[in-house]
């Protein structure tokens, strides 16, 4: 039992540091998979915003956080998606700087039964 507690050091040739090795680029399959995941997050996020806009006129950011968790969108990805949605005008930040609303297209009809926080 004592033998296991004492590390056995061998000569310096057990491990070699490769100083001339160059990291290989990611494979194309992984990159495509990652791009598909990003696209899936965008689709999920758009679907999530659509569902939220059916329920509420405007909503606080924490609702986005909760819904994103339900839709399987990671928090890091959610920040990027919110930023991109604000840039594109799909998500509008209200004057009170706390509530968001989804941009409603011209041809959709308003629903007076929507809730607001």
Jot down its keywords.
single chain; 117 residues; alpha+beta; Arc Repressor Mutant, subunit A; 4 helices; 4 strands; 12% strand
Give an overview of the whole structure.
It is a single chain. The chain has about 120 residues and is of the alpha+beta class. The chain has a domain of about 70 residues: Orthogonal Bundle (Arc Repressor Mutant, subunit A). The protein is built from 4 helices and 4 strands. It has a 4-stranded mixed β-sheet with strand order 2-3-1-4. Helix 2 crosses helix 3. It is globular and about 35 Å long.
Helical percentage: 40-55%
Please tally the helical runs, counting DSSP H or I stretches of 4 or more residues: 4
Task: Give the low-confidence spans.
Answer: 28-32, 106-113
Coarse shape: globular
Described by its quaternary structure, the protein is single chain
Largest sheet: 4 strands, mixed
Spell out the blueprint of helices and strands.
Blueprint: H1 2-5, H2 28-55, E1 56-60, H3 61-71, H4 75-88, E2 91-93, E3 99-102, E4 115-116
Parallel strand pairs: 1-4
Antiparallel strand pairs: 1-3, 2-3
């Amino acid at each position: 039992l004592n033998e296991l507690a004492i590390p056995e050091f061998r000569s310096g040739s057990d491990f070699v540091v490769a100083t001339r090795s160059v990291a290989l680029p990611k494979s194309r399959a992984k990159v495509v998979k990652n791009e598909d995941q990003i696209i899936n997050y965008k689709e999920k996020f758009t679907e999530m915003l659509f569902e939220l806009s059916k329920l509420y006129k405007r909503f606080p950011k924490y609702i986005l956080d909760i819904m994103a968790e339900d839709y399987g969108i990671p928090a890091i990805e959610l920040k990027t998606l919110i930023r991109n949605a604000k840039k594109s005008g799909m998500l509008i930040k209200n004057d009170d700087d706390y509530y968001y609303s989804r941009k409603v297209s011209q041809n959709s009809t308003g629903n007076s039964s929507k809730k607001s926080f």
